[in-house]
Amino acid sequence: MGVRRFGRVNWLGLYTLAWREVARFMNVWAQTIMAPLITAGLFLMIFTIAIGPTRGEVMGVAFTTFIAPGILTMTVIQNAFANTSSSIASAKVQGNIVDTLMPPLSAGELMVGYVAGAVARGLLVAVVIGIGVAVFLGVVPQAPLVVLGFVVLSGVFMGALGLIAGIYANKFDQLAAVTNFLVTPLAFLSGTFYSIDALPQLMQDLSHANPMFYLIDGVRWGMLGVSDSSPLLGAAVAGGASVVALWIVWEMLRRGTRLKA
């Protein structure tokens, strides 16, 4: 039986890969969905108890309300990265990466299938946390489409970075190093818990060079109507960074970089 293609795209294979990635994280939903919700809730509770009563307003909104979009986006970022990086790294370590490389899927189709899983996980996490924020803090997005757009951009960008890290890593220690020394620091130092206007000028300049800052700032604008930078600029920077990351992934998959023995 021939491969079902419409035009030049193997839609059946692409759908199967994307669905496999979604089923993969849904099979352990307590770890991939409930755990991020609990972690986000703990962040909000701890900051509310420790700092909230004395912090005052930030950019015209209560401190707890201000950090809610940042925590939501940071959680999306971490989960999107984890989805693609762990999927491809596990396949390499366990030796079954050939099951993904053997089917008639192009480099672009492999890339889209993996990233689709990351976006789906990011969206699901965002919805769950967003419901919690709406119920307990009364924060409802002022511009839902903007929030949706930046959450999808977060999934695409971090899903692509996760693929790069997963392809690069030959063992889980290397993947953990990327997570601990790159992804987590960049997420925490991107305006999640503060406005970058409070930082020294050098730190502000460094923050503006961090694509994660624009992702968090864009979601904050969509939810609260306040931000450190223009959402249009944020969309342009995050979109450009996503295109670069996707191109790197496509090149690595096309060449079989660190995938083929």
From TrEMBL:
InterPro entries: ABC-2_transport_permease, ABC2_TM, ABC2_TM_bact-type, ABC_2_transport. It holds the Pfam family ABC2_membrane. The chain crosses the membrane at residues 28-52, 58-77, 112-139, 145-168, 175-196, 232-250. It is found in: Cell inner membrane; Membrane. PROSITE patterns: ABC_TM2 (PS51012). Keywords: Cell membrane, Membrane, Transmembrane, Transmembrane helix, Transport. GO terms for molecular function: ABC-type transporter activity. Residues 27-256 form the ABC transmembrane type-2 domain. GO terms for cellular component: ATP-binding cassette (ABC) transporter complex. Belongs to the ABC-2 integral membrane protein family. This is Transport permease protein. The lineage of its organism: Bacteria, Pseudomonadati, Pseudomonadota, Alphaproteobacteria, Rhodobacterales.
